[in-house]
């Protein structure tokens, strides 16, 4: 995407091919994106980390971009994702001193962790999807994403660029839930202009990748949520013991909903993630884009304090 200094290749891991972007030499920093993003959401961080003596690696996660996209939601559990990343680390020949942004479920292979936006929560006593649907209604975006083909069909009424704008530049209520009988993609507004932290070219690049891959792989992560709840039973009561930093935007809908603010400022979170540092900054959900320099500085200073460089 207009940067010849970032190298690209495909790596075979855990039965799939992942596309990875990488730059730099030194301690590996693995950058993990979410929905509806790609490796390119980390472009600023890749360049900055490389300049600071790190090896920055950002994959397209399975189901996204130029990586393989298995059709079955059962292929998108947290065990598959961790398996993909462990295999990637093996291919990169990194046994230790790996810094990770952002995933909580592989602490034995990482020395430090930075998470953006979403704090770790232990598995709830009940399956998450029925609970969330009962709590927030059938219009809740996670609930609407469950039925195979439903969101894909509603998304298809718009061009891919508009779909990305609606989600990446969301300017709706604190809770992403549509009124009864309305699809979430129809409910979300289409912004009339772009904020200064993202360009039309960057959005067009992502849209071109989703035009090829579709959205099914990305949506399958949500369709695997109840399966994750079942699979994570053996880890009930587990703690995240590696040094961890949570960076969250004060205007993030997720921060203002679900009791997140009280949770991360309370004692329960600190008991589950004992070595935690919480930073609340001005911004929304995609803060690695919106506050690229500030977030990158927070990441680099944290890793520096762990003597990882």
Automatic annotation (TrEMBL):
| Taxonomic superkingdom | Eukaryota
Alphabetized Gene3D superfamilies for the sequence: alpha/beta hydrolase
Sorted keywords for this record are: Hydrolase
Q: Which InterPro entries match?
A: AB_hydrolase_1 (IPR000073), AB_hydrolase_fold (IPR029058), Epox_hydrolase-like (IPR000639)
Q: Which Pfam families match?
A: Abhydrolase_1
GO MF annotation terms: hydrolase activity
Domain AB hydrolase-1 residues, every copy:
28-291
**Similarity remark:** Belongs to the AB hydrolase superfamily. Epoxide hydrolase family.
Q: What name has this protein been given in UniProt?
A: AB hydrolase-1 domain-containing protein
Organism per entry: Escallonia rubra
At the highest ranks, the source species' classification is: Eukaryota, Viridiplantae, Streptophyta, Embryophyta, Tracheophyta
């Amino acid at each position: 995407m207009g940067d010849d200094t970032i190298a690209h290749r495909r790596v075979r891991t855990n039965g799939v091919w992942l596309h990875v972007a990488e730059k730099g030499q030194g301690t590996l920093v693995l950058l993990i994106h979410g929905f509806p993003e790609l490796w390119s959401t980390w472009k600023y961080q890749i360049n900055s980390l490389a300049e600071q003596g790190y090896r920055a690696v950002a994959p397209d996660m399975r189901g996204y971009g130029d990586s393989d996209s298995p059709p079955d939601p059962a292929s998108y559990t947290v065990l598959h994702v961790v398996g993909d990343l462990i295999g990637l680390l093996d291919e990169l020949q990194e046994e230790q001193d790996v810094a990770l942004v952002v995933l909580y479920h592989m602490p034995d292979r990482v020395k430090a962790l930075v998470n953006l936006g979403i704090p770790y929560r232990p598995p709830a006593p009940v399956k998450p999807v029925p609970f969330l649907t009962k709590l927030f209604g059938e219009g809740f975006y996670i609930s609407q994403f469950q039925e195979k083909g439903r969101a894909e069909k509603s998304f298809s009424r718009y061009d891919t660029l508009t779909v990305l704008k609606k989600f990446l530049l969301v300017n709706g209520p604190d809770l992403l839930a549509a009124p009864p009988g309305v699809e979430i993609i129809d409910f979300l507004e289409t912004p009339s202009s772009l904020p200064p932290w993202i360009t039309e070219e960057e959005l067009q690049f992502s849209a071109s990748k989703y035009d090829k891959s579709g959205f099914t792989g990305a949506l399958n992560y949500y369709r695997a949520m109840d399966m994750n709840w079942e699979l994570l039973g053996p880890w009930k009561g587990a703690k995240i013991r590696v040094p961890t930093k949570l960076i969250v935007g004060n205007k993030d809908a997720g921060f203002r909903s679900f009791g997140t603010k009280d949770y991360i400022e309370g004692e329960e979170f600190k008991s589950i993630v004992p070595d935690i540092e919480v930073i609340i900054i001005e911004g929304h959900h995609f803060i690695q884009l919106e506050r690229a320099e500030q977030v990158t500085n927070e990441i680099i200073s944290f890793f520096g304090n762990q003597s990882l460089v």
